[in-house]
């Protein structure tokens, strides 16, 4: 079989066709998660082909997707989150934030996600940060629990423009389930905030962000998921039902053998050597300026590949930390890494 007709090449071509349709992407991701598929040589060749292509793209000047953690502090103590087990606080210094936005813009990064592990609207300078991002010519998106989304703030963000997407974390439908999973937030207040924002979005004459409502499946809420989807699907652009994680073992209360275990995208030992897309595609800058390629490490924060207090974004991405990690993954030695080797999450190369 020629290289042009190899399974890896054919799968790569199929990926290009699939990417044109959101419905096809969703179906492809479900197929991708199939343990039977992941054990085939065709699948392994596809993953290695994608990793090789990603490495070539980096060498040709590709930039990663950028996350800036404007604030680590959160006003919720969600049961699936490490914030429920230990105090995590912090705010990115404004001088550092401005420099990172300037660097990213000069590097050719055109969009940034402004949240990682905290609630961004806790930050008193949140709107000022958004204004700076817009002055740099960049667009932005973020995750939020919507508890602090006032009509005034929502209107100001819509008027500012450049807001491409928001993902509201809403982990329950009924008041009892929601408030058990996301204390001390009020279910009724959050739902009212989102509904009011959706009304403002409909009335806004300019460009508006896409809205995703996401829910992490837990023993406490799994029985509500079908009704949750039925409630939100007519109201928003996308409903995301996600799998819970133990944040590389940091979350002590996680029961990975619970009722949703079958939906988790986890790997067996034979798969753990395969490359993960994160070292090529991701750059997470924490509130203190340290950099990681992996959101799964957002709790422990041990996979640190650089520090923006003393290095530029580009220096870190092309520096020894990122380069060595990419090489290790590319050469099927992921399992040897002290952190990646213990991770069983399998992000799709789609």
From TrEMBL:
It comes from Nannocystis pusilla. InterPro entries: 4Fe4S-binding_SPASM_dom (IPR023885), AdoMet-like_SPASM_containing (IPR034391), Aldolase_TIM (IPR013785), Radical_SAM_PqqE_MftC-like (IPR050377), rSAM (IPR007197), rSAM_sf (IPR058240). Keywords: 4Fe-4S, Iron, Iron-sulfur, Metal-binding, S-adenosyl-L-methionine. SUPFAM superfamilies: Radical SAM enzymes. It comes from the Bacteria. The keyword Iron applies. Residues 60-277 form the Radical SAM core domain. Its cofactor is [4Fe-4S] cluster. GO terms for molecular function: catalytic activity; iron-sulfur cluster binding; metal ion binding. This is Radical SAM/SPASM domain-containing protein.
